[in-house]
Known about the structure:
Elements: E1 17-21, E2 29-30, E3 42-50, E4 59-67, E5 72-75, E6 80-82, E7 88-89, E8 97-100, E9 108-109, E10 114-119, H1 134-137, E11 142-143, E12 150-157, E13 164-173
Parallel strand pairs: 6-13
Antiparallel strand pairs: 1-2, 1-3, 3-4, 5-8, 7-11, 8-9, 10-12, 12-13
Amino acid sequence: SRTPACSVKFGSVQSTWYSWSASEEGPWTQWQWPARTPTEAGTYYVKATLPDNDYYLGAEMVSEVEIVSSALTVSMTGYSGTYDTADHSVYNTDSISVKGYVNGTAAQDVTGYTVTVIPKVGEETSAPASNDGRWTSAAVTNVKNVADSGAYWYKVSKTNYADAFGPLTVSIAKKDVVKPTADQTSYTYTG
């Protein structure tokens, strides 16, 4: 629910004011959906204020509310081809699919995400944590040589979504050398 609600043990709730803050101590912002309410993933505090009336003293209650990051579903394939002297994106840009949930509805295409790829180290069975320095120090954007073939990890990031991780395989095959015909005395390498 996008609007908080409260109840009282005795009597009825005549007029309750709701406000929110990123801190338990405030400052407090009046709740007005959707213009002035939190929308980013994080922890917030909601305060219900019940003013004095003819029979009861007013009361306030603060509750912690968490907007959790939504999950991403990612599908992509690593580059696969034959050595051709050119740089290629480490993943096939046409193969990537990123979907996420918005307001609990069915998965929708997500745009504006960031993809980071790093080589696997040894026999790693899971990707490093989001805050591991390798995601910046060892990031790979392009592959070119047969030696670039191998196992990689990807991380897809988007504000308000939990990072998604997965394996990626790059395969670059050696190029066949065209042998000169019997009547050629020289051959120029063309890549």
